[in-house]
Amino acid sequence: MVAAALVLGSCSSGERGQGLYIQRFFGECTSDYGTATDIAKAEGECGIITTMINAFRQADPAAKVSQNVVAWPGYSQLTAQLAARQPPDLVTMHTGVIPDYAGKGLLEPVEPYLQAAGLSPAMFTPASRQGVTWQGRMYGLPWDTHGGLWHINTALFAKAGLMKDGKPILPRSPEELLSQGRQFRARTGKPYLLQSLVADPAGAARILYTYMMAQGAPVFTDPRHIDLDNPKGQAVANLFRQVTAEGIGTSNMDTPAAIAAFMSGEGGVYPTGTWMIGQFETEEKTTGRPLFKSYAVQPFPQLYAKNVMFVSGHSWVVPKRERTAAERQAIVDFFRFMVARNGDWARTGHLPAVQSVIDGPAFLGLPHRSDIAIVAKIGRALPDGVLRQNAVEGLVGEEMAAAMTGQKPVRRALADADRRVNEFLAEVP
What we know:
The chain contains 20 helices and 17 strands. It is globular, with a radius of gyration of 22 Å. β8 and β9 form a beta hairpin. α9 crosses α19 and α10 packs across α19. The relative contact order is 0.19. The longest helix has 17 residues. The strands form five sheets. Strands 7, 12, 13, 14, 16 and 17 form a six-stranded mixed beta sheet that branches. It has a five-stranded mixed beta sheet with strand order 2-1-3-15-6. By secondary structure, it is of the alpha+beta class. It is 43% helix and 14% strand. It is found in: Periplasm. Its main location: periplasm. It comes from Sphingomonas rosea. This is Extracellular solute-binding protein.
């Protein structure tokens, strides 16, 4: 049984009964995977996670697993469950949301569960471990790391003269970004960057966060105050404003339009996340499609002195409540089971949280993964005390997109972002 180090949660009243109650996002696909247990045959986020939970239920019937699939991201429902003191036992959570719940004492630290499962915090990648850490404690089982990548049409790069030894030539400075973008545009007649700047604030925020961090800028001066309107933030915004103004990058696409344009061969690079690798790999393998044998993926290129990039991730958290010994043991068993299968999750495109999986031949043997494995090392999250990170990202992204498209002057957009975020955080209890 679980060691005595597992302290009971204190925010529950009454007994909820036996059994491991899991609440997750990643979609509902019981029509295809409702009884599937062969994880190796599952595909996509929903298929793989559904099959994993089915396999755990089969392997550990004593856990008495029940599952609730929530509409993404599910935090309103979780908050209501916590208020009613009847939360699930395990919940999928974006790492940027953990401070909002851990800071109010609503999550259990997971080190005791890890210890009971024979798992060490040191086994996880630096990026994934940082993502679940708040005030020195781990408040989630790291599950993956995801961040911005450059998805590249290598046929168009070859036409533009930007391939060498079978690899795309990427810029290594702001000046090279502009010069290579101009060269691509001149030789192909197509935009170098397919930017989804309409209704996709996360994409614009990723650019600003990443390239401020790459210059050594802290982004936040303290957890309650953001600082974007400074020379380093202005340098990033001005650079990408010039990219858009010159037509090197698009300015009028939303996410579906940018995805469709990339798959149709209408641009060189689609800067988006790890989650698109699977869909683009399918295009790469399909005869007659523009990306057939013409797809590569790389981390955001290093344009400044530091090779770092902004990342986030998914985790499994344990909401605080009283639990029976059997329920606590089921959490331990689930953690052990899932960590052993973290490599299967890598087929979604997200980077595994377990360092040995990142370094192992199975992961590195997957298409393109050796090119992006470094993200697990260079990835950086926002400071762990920053609350409401999703909402903050939305505000920052709106203003950065306005700067990039010329809807606002750069200085005004960044100043507005600072003001809006700082006023918002000042009102957060």
